[in-house]
Amino acid sequence: MSSASCRACPSLALLKYWGKLDPRENTPATPSVAVTLGGLFTDTTVSLAADEDSVSVDGAIEPAERYASFFERMRRGAGRDTRFRATSENSFPTAAGIASSSSGFAALTCACAWASGVELKPARLSALARFGSASAARSIFGGFVLLDRGARSAEQLFPPEHWPELRVLVVVTEARRKEVSSRDAMEASRRSSPYYGQWVRSSRRLLPEALRAVADRDLELLGEVARASALRMHAVMLAARPAFSYWVPLTVAVMAACAELRRDGVGAWETMDAGPQVKILCLEPDRPRIEKHLRALAPEAGIIVAHPGPGVHRP
């Protein structure tokens, strides 16, 4: 039996993806602009199996139904009627709002293809990864990536070296698995939040600013867009029925600390995904001061320093 291993880094959406245009095809209702986070990764090894598909993540067996549709698409894409046995390990907390599904399904897609003996172009890998997680379509690529509204695959905007001094501080406020998955939260938002339609429209209006900010390496503009996008996404959740929130008290405290730093002239711009963790955009010269401030505020929080990283590759 053949086997192959792949490493992928999580994709942090700066302009957020939240909502599905076509649930069957898992295409996004909103455009997203993202940076691939070097310094965090998922390693996945896949072996071809004769009996059934299986996935373990960090030593725990995953529910088969979560992967069934993806594996069927993968078999079609690889042109092989086989089963896959996958084991994955994350270097960061799993299912806790640090985009582990993006790196997880990107690594799984490539490992399945390579184990099957096929070399697929990045755009095709991206399209297949999308069936596991739309954000995984972005993690195929390194650097700065766009997944447009309704797109079947993502595209790289710029390689990692486009903005080498950009840093993302991932502040781990709570490491346990979240109780509501992103997939379920998206559907609840679409179905019941009165703000959902406006969220979709406003995301499209923010796209040109996000693209310009990345192209010009303009941290202030990118920070403003990323912060606005994240807060609007969470407002949609808060307005759902029933309402729900991923934030914990430390989430709010770190957000307030970023505002305080900006008042003092330090570029520290926060964003959050579907989880309690706070990601802070900054430049390398400001990183030590921001870290010092955060460690004084919350010595119990973990801080992971990330940078624009590579696309999928062999570990």
Describe the structure.
- With 315 residues, the protein is an alpha+beta fold.
- The protein folds into two domains: 3-161, Ribosomal Protein S5, domain 2, CATH 3.30.230.10; 162-308, GHMP kinase, C-terminal domain (Alpha-Beta Plaits, 2-Layer Sandwich).
- 38% of the residues lie in helices and 24% in strands.
- It has helices spanning 64-78, 100-115, 122-129, 136-139, 182-192, 196-216, 219-238, 249-263, 287-297; strands at 3-8, 11-15, 20-22, 27-28, 32-38, 42-49, 54-57, 60-61, 83-90, 144-147, 155-158, 166-172, 269-271, 278-283, 302-308.
- The strands form three sheets. Strands 2, 5, 10, 11, 12, 13, 14 and 15 form an eight-stranded antiparallel sheet that branches.
- Strand 10 and strand 11 form a beta hairpin.
- Helix 2 packs across helix 3 (122-129), helix 6 packs antiparallel against helix 7 and helix 8 (249-263) crosses helix 9.
- The model has no long low-confidence stretch (mean pLDDT 95).
